[in-house]
Known about the structure:
Layout: H1 15-22, H2 28-36, E1 48-51, H3 60-64, E2 69-73, E3 78-84, H4 91-107, E4 119-125, E5 139-145, E6 151-162, H5 176-186, H6 200-209, H7 216-246, H8 248-261, H9 266-273, H10 277-282
Parallel strand pairs: 3-4, 4-6
Antiparallel strand pairs: 1-2, 2-3, 5-6
Helix pairs in contact: 7-8, 8-9
Amino acid sequence: MLFPLPDKYIDLLTDFGFKRVFGTEPNKALLIDFLNTLLPPHHQIQDVTIKNPEFLGNTLVDRRAIFDIYCQSTTGERFIVEMQKAKQNFFKDRSVYYATFPMQEKVQQRDWNYQLTAVYTVGILDFIFNDHKHDSELLHVVELKNQRCEVFYDKLKFIYVELPKFTKSVDQLETHFDKWLFLFRHLAQCNAPPEPLQEDVFTQLFEVAEIANFSSEEQALYQDSLKVYRDMYSVNQTLIQESLEQGRQQGIEQVAKQMKAAGLPLKDIAQYTGLSVDEINQLS
């Protein structure tokens, strides 16, 4: 049964909300605008093509490792954009692994001469890295450098945004980047576009994100996505508490059991706990 949603706008941190706003051709101007706040001047995007990530990877296992959004600019740069809701074991390893997929795509071309196009991995994180929890900086740009901190290879970049560190109110917004981060955190609590956000690109965003414009099927999909996000938030808080009381591994297993008992998909449990599907199946 479909119940009315109390919010006027979707939550961008849900899978449905994130992909509706950033992952479709009709709305790609929003993706371009957001990415350009993160990119250097020489890689500013004019246009992108949204690509199907299921075509990446050489094996069936690789193709199951699907990320949220994959796109290519008109000048050849590839962009992997991920929204990560909870901490995960080996998250950085996973980011590096995913960054190799667009490179493999080039390798499959017959006339390839070893030249690669730039690959950007962008992570919108609803958590804080353990090694940055005492650091106020929320934007992290990672490049491959040598022992003199000189960029050795400028075609591979990892950009991470730690959203929980963004605490500005609407009256404190100064930059375009600030405005985007505010919307990531607070769009669902807005009743109307605040004055600082009454720009053309954000006008489009508010229209795309208004739940009243959804079909019944879309509203149902969003409700499911919202429930998963809220469950994951609750599970994450439980994980913290359980980890403190029982030890980290015991806490993770306990949370996985709770998620399994709640009927959440095994792949989602694996993503948010770092356990394998086999380990989850072995939990009583």
